[in-house]
Amino acid sequence: xxxxxxxxxxxxxxxxxxxxxxxxxxxxxxxxxxxxxxxxxxxxxxxxxxxxxxxxxxxxxxxxxxxxxxxxxxxxxxxxxxxxxxxxxxxxxxxxxxxxxxxxxxxxxxxxxxxxxxxxxxxxxxxxxxxxxxxxxxxxxxxxxxxxxxxxxxxxxxxxxxxxxxxxxxxxxxxxxxxxxxxxxxxxxxxxxxxxxxxxxxxxxxxxxxxxxxxxxxxxxxxxxxxxxxxxxxxxxxxxxxxxxxxxxxxxxxxxxxxxxxxxxxxxxxxxxxxxxxxxxxxxxxxxxxxxxxxxxxxxxxxxxxxxxxxxxxxxxxxxxxxxxxxxxxxxxxxxxxxxxxxxxxxxxxxxxxxxxxxxxxxxxxxxxxxxxxxxxxxxxx
Amino acid sequence: xxxxxxxxxxxxxxxxxxxxxxxxxxxxxxxxxxxxxxxxxxxxxxxxxxxxxxxxxxxxxxxxxxxxxxxxxxxxxxxxxxxxxxxxxxxxxxxxxxxxx
Lengths: 382, 101
What we know:
The structure holds two protein chains of two kinds. By secondary structure, chain A is α/β, with parallel strands linked by helices. Chain A has two domains: 18-145, Rossmann fold; 189-381, Alpha-Beta Plaits. In chain A, 45% of the residues lie in helices and 25% in strands. Chain A contains twelve helices and 13 strands. Chain A has helices at residues 26-38, 49-58, 75-84, 102-111, 123-162, 168-177, 204-210, 213-233, 259-285, 318-329, 339-345, 378-381, and strands spanning 18-22, 42-46, 63-67, 93-98, 115-119, 190-202, 237-242, 245-250, 290-306, 311-316, 334-338, 353-360, 369-375. In chain A, β4, α4 (102-111) and β5 form a beta-alpha-beta unit. In chain A, α3 runs parallel beside α4 (102-111), α5 (123-162) packs across α6 and α8 runs antiparallel to α9 (259-285). Chain A starts with 17 loop residues before the first strand and ends with a helix. By secondary structure, chain B is mainly α. Chain B has one domain (2-100): HPT domain (Four Helix Bundle (Hemerythrin (Met), subunit A)), CATH 1.20.120.160. Chain B is 69% helix and 11% strand. Chain B has helices at 18-37, 41-58, 61-75, 79-95; strands spanning 2-4, 7-10, 97-100. In chain B, strands 1-2-3 form a three-stranded mixed β-sheet, with no helix packed on it. In chain B, α3 packs antiparallel against α4 (79-95). Chain B is elongated, with a radius of gyration of 13 Å. Chain B starts with a strand and ends with a strand. The interface between A and B is medium-sized, with 15 and 18 residues.
């Protein structure tokens, strides 16, 4: 039984080196083609310049052997067009010219030809030139494939490094946008408008008092799995996880024109998806737990904060502090939002119980701020 | 290796191509005659240039040499010289013998 190409253990056969022979003289095409085929190359042919350009455009060869004097577009014109097109500029072109025609060589150089072959063609010269260009071409392709492999590896490393902090989709965007700049988070700190969401577990203290360490860690992991999934679902970036609280940013590090809406949907998912977990814990441990969320928007600083040995990519500023205060005020299953966030999401709130808390003085803020409380019940979020 | 200009040694691997090569040379001879009769020196120059390129590529130095003289003659519009070349070409094609090695 014959082995199929590409079956396990059989390395794929290298693709044949493809040469396009362009000449209006059928005998020259047959002669050049025969010699190249004997060297294991795949020969394709075109009988004039226009046909050659169409052929290269449709199926770019590895090398073009191009006669100069042809009907239609001359060899010079074909060469010039191939070399001026980014897609074909790297295909080596050998111009076939008369031995004594030095003018043609000058014009060929100007047209971008990689090499020349004299007519009448000596087979040794033909093979030597084609083999040299083949080696160069294959080296160039090898270098290109290595460069691409290194690029893929580097992007994978970036994805892996950040996929624990941001959603896989954001990690992909960062890796794709990274170019050759390396770590995209190494840039200088900057001010930006963002939406900060803080969430924590109402009743967490009782949980830690009533349960063994191992059980607490397991429950926290279960809780954070729900919250991080919800954050990633809406492309939020997790900036901090401490105790039972989670800080998620939107509109950072990439712009999200619907950042407030994303934050609200994230809060809804956090509350809604944690509800069955809370119910199970209630049955098992007799605990009444729920997620409380605070959301605020405004200008904040984003950047790496810390020392040479330890740093956090984080967000700092009023909206972050306010979101933290709102979270502390929120009851289980409640989302507290500042006025500007409410204005952005109010069209999404029909069917939810919204209470205007009026202007609330928050610790650390000189002016009271408008606060709205939304009851993100499980039924409504389903 | 040319033993005489009428006995041409051609590489063995080109043997399959030679019948078509000569068929095309005879067509070429007729084209040369027609072009000369109509005074089409552009066509004569093109045909001469092609003979020059293809002849010795296959090992037929005489074809390249006659082709060069036709190309030059066409450039000078020298009917007499071209006529002589065409006669020489016809004679050569009728007598040339090929040995494959």
